[in-house]
Amino acid sequence: MNAPFQPDLKSRQRLVIDLLKPILDEGALLWEPEDTIPYECDGLAAYRKVPLAVALPKTEAQVVAILKICHAHQIPVVPRGAGTGLSGGAMPITDGLVLSLAKFKQIIEINPIARTAIVQPGVRNLAISEAVAQYGLYYAPDPSSQIACTIGGNVSENSGGVHCLKYGLTIHNVLRIRAILINGDIVEFGGLAPDAPGLDLFSVFIGSEGMLAVVTEVTVKLVPKPQLARVIMASFDDIQKGGNAVAAIIGAGIIPAGLEMMDQPATRAVEEFVHAGYDTDAATILLCESDGTPEEVAEEIGKMSAVLQASGATRLQVSESESQRLQFWSGRKNAFPAAGRVSADYYCMDGTIPRRQIAELLTRIKKMEEKYQLACMNVFHAGDGNMHPLILFNGSDHAQWLRAEEFGSDILETCVALGGTITGEHGVGIEKINSMCVQFTELERNLFWGIKAAFDPLKLLNSDKAIPTLHRCAEYGRVHISNGILPHPELERF
Amino acid sequence: MQNVIRQFQEQILETIERHETLNISGSGSKHWYGDAPSGTRLDTTPYSGILDYQPEELVITVRAGTQLAEVEAALAQKNQYFAFEPPHFGPLATVGGMIGAGLAGPGRGQYGGMRDFVLGVKLIDGLGNILSFGGKVMKNVAGYDVSRLLPGSLGTLALLLDVSIKVLPLPAKTMTLKFQMPQGDAITQMNTWASQPLPLSASAWLEDTLWIRLSGASAAVDTAMLTMGQQFSAEIMEPSQASQFWQSIREQQHAFFNANELPLWRFSVNPLSLPLPFEEHQAMEWYGGVRWVKADISPEQARGIALENGGHATYFRGPKSDLHTVFTPLSHNPLTAPLEIVQQQVRKAFDPHGVFQTGRMPY
User: Fold this and answer.
1) How many whole angstroms separate alpha carbon B259 and alpha carbon A1?
2) Element of type H or E holding B62
3) Phi and psi dihedrals of A362, rounded to 5?
4) A492 or A132: which carries more pLDDT confidence?
5) Do B145 and A250 make contact, defined as CB atoms within 8 angstroms?
6) Which candidate, A41, A66, A151, A165, places its Cα nearest to that of A107?
């Protein structure tokens, strides 16, 4: 933080209240601990901090005024949507403000012919699809949290979902973003036109984890709802065969609407919970969906079945009705709650690897289970190589949590070593910030900071997230000395 | 290739010493695009070759100096392609030029633009450092999405070394329908179709004719042809003729683009905009999102009309004048004006000495 000498937090809090209270509605500024504690974390409850205050503006003019004040007084700001994020991206800063967009809930305009909807950032992902269903349209990215998560958060994380193999991520389904820079300037990224002049700042903005500007309006692209969808459930007696089947489907020129994989520990936990009809004897199962016109789906299901059979599937079952399709999916969609039933706590990872490495990574995770003495169940978006290993642990045993954290870092570093990345869709946030030191060199991280400074020179917007400082990486390196070589030997140590 | 990279780095450092600029160029097939660049040519063509291509990963990684035709041939062998159908504008066009120009062809309307398919890059920044961003996987949110800044940056940010691009399987069946339709009706009709579950893959309108391309599973294409043919009388094009037509739009070899000596303006606008108020003939692509106009109009007029229609105008091809820039500057729109300084600072983060600041796009 560039802020000069900080007086104690109490007087800093007084200042924030005095500055912001006059511009906000009654009850839209919270500072008493009982009001601010609910904001101390997001979906990643292991990391918590209580902010100085929480502001809940309801107009864009109020957002502008808040940011101008914070800019003038160098008050750190953490923008927040529904707080469903899994990487601690919305965790507050102790001497800062949480800027909640929860009151921005309006769907401003739906244009069925243009296939667009203009929505405020606090609109829930699923609410968009529900509002446009009457026109035979929907908003394609469907993160598992879509009932609760908001579009503003989706933009900040570049969220994916089960159907993004075929329909793309948030970046492919958003056209225009209206946002406020930290100095209060109102700007627009992208537009209704197919492209915008200048550098493609829209692309950098999507997935920037609330570090570059605050979103006040999003124009999303809508797509026609397919007439029909059917899903194949395929069992494999061997993880390697299941992994190869994924590659074989894509290699056969098929892009399934969804292609998901679950290992045996996951199917067993889920089956007990929702009775989705999963084959719990299988080492792994694949869910492979086709959508389109009835003729198209029939043609594609035929092709997919043939490939799966040739890849050694021991059992194939095709959904015969919409209710059966939803039943097959119910297990996958409830995998996280199911993990919550078999274990006191679970730690969800989000690495992505090339598809051909799926079996290799699963084998290595098996070995790590022994090393860290913790169980792990695996559900993942196999079609795009995005893995969600769920490490099971008991949070009341601190030693277990520390082992779970180590286990998680080990998985992520293995993903990088296998040619992948530490996060596919959950974001870096605070959770994976140390792993960024492994995935990127110091020069690369410097460029990230250069981009950050271009938007927010004083580093006030969510600056302790996503991009680690040189010192943080040096500290992390100190703990993880590999082969006796100290990283960043040029830095002074304490 | 390590030698070539070292030479690039040396050339960058020497140019910094001399306080000059480097004009990054492959075959020069798109040298006419953008404002006239200054600087010494940095030739990317010695850095060529396909690095990694595994069809089941739907990703190809290539060196910037590789010829686009060679890459597309390798993809075609495995029944895959670049769905954004980049224009070559010359037989020797390179992948680096494709990324730098950031242009896309007929598939853009349905499948997305160049930047939507870029997954990762390796580059040399303006200090001669080698940096990598993104990767070879479809989903990657680690750090800012720096890779997607490269498309359309016209060599003004960094020297691209390698790029990983998402590819798609070739559709099982493709058919093209032709409808006689005035421009206003065509705008409404193609967008109406696009809002229905039909396997559209491209649209174009010129000379009072709407061309719709359908691609996908053969059953889906057949059903759609039937549905659309029942609504309007349609001519089903012979496939080889149809593919020639789309090629002529992609490469701008169609008579429309070469009919006279007038400059070619590109209007990128809200697709549902009414026909733009020009006497001259217009052509449309991408459901009406791009309007091509061959006319002698002033940049002020062109930019004003584009802004009213939710977009921007580019003086795409024609004699260059020193009086104005080819692209619409960010300052022209009050909602992008504050981003002008942001853009300058982003550029400086890549290239603090300005070694790539050739003036080819306005900053």
Assistant:
1) 60
2) strand B59-63
3) -60, -40
4) A132
5) no
6) A151
CA distance A432 to chain B (A): 9
Quick one: pLDDT at residue A7?
A: 61
| pLDDT of the residue at A6 | 54
pTM of the model: 0.95
Distances from the Cα of B214 to the Cα of A138, A331, A333, B74, B202, angstroms: 21, 36, 34, 24, 7
Q: How many CA atoms lie within 13 A of B164 on its CB side?
A: 25
Contact A185 B145 (CB under 8 A): no
Q: In angstroms, what CA-CA distances link B245 with A247, B72, B79, B176, B211?
A: 35, 19, 21, 10, 9
Chain B residues touching A186 at Cβ < 8 A? 335, 338
Q: What is the pLDDT of residue A484?
A: 39
Interstrand relation of B264-268 and B290-294 (parallel, antiparallel or unpaired): antiparallel
SS3 state at B359: coil
Question: pLDDT digit string (tens) for A105-147?
Answer: 999 999 999 999 999 999 999 999 999 999 999 999 998 889 9
Angstrom distance (rounded) from CA A50 to CA A38: 9
* Structure token pair of residue A291: 């959508």
pLDDT digits (tens, 9 = 90+) for A176-218: 999 999 999 999 999 999 999 999 999 999 999 999 999 999 9
Token pair 């908003």 in the structure block, residue? A139
Selected residues 275-314 of chain B with any CB under 8 Å from a CB in chain A: 286, 289-290, 309-312, 314
Question: CA torsion, points A430, A435, A436, A437, in degrees to nearest 10?
Answer: 120
Residue A480: which pLDDT band, with cuts at 50, 70 and 90?
low
Which one-letter amino acid corresponds to residue B341? Answer: I
Per-residue exposure over B175-195, b if at least 16 CB sit within 10 Å of its own CB, e if not: bbbbbebebeebbebbbebbb
Which chain A residues in 97-116 lie under 8 Å from chain B, judged by CB atoms?
111-115
Picking from A405, A312, A407, the residue whose alpha carbon sits closest to that of residue A364 is A407
User: Do the bridges between strand B40-43 and strand B22-25 make them parallel or antiparallel, or are there none, so unpaired?
Assistant: parallel
ipTM above 0.90, yes or no: yes
Q: Does position B48 have pLDDT exceeding 70, yes or no?
A: yes
Helix or strand holding residue B81 (H, E): strand B80-81
Query: In the structure encoding, which two tokens stand for residue B84, read together?
Result: 């954004």
Q: Is the pLDDT of residue A93 over 50?
A: yes
Question: What is the full DSSP assignment across A4-65?
Answer: -S---HHHHHHHHHHHHGGGS-TT-EE-SHHHHGGGS--S-TTS----SEEE---SHHHHHH
Kindly report the average pLDDT of chain B as a whole number: 96
pLDDT band at A489 (very low <50, low <70, confident <90, very high): very low
* Burial of B3 per CB tally in 10 Å (0-12, 13-18, 19+): exposed
Search chain B and give the residue with CA nearest A138. B195
Torsion angle of the four alpha carbons A338, A340, A344, A346, in this order, in degrees rounded to the nearest 10: 110
Strands of the sheet containing A97-100, edge to edge, are A29-30, A53-55, A97-100, A77-80
- Taking residue A4's Cβ as centre, other Cβ atoms within 10 Å add up to 6
State CA B215 to chain mean position distance. 21
Among A170, A135, A168, A164, residue whose Cα is nearest residue A151: A170
Q: What pLDDT is stored for residue A337 in this prediction?
A: 85
CA angle B40, B44, B50 (to 5 degrees): 175
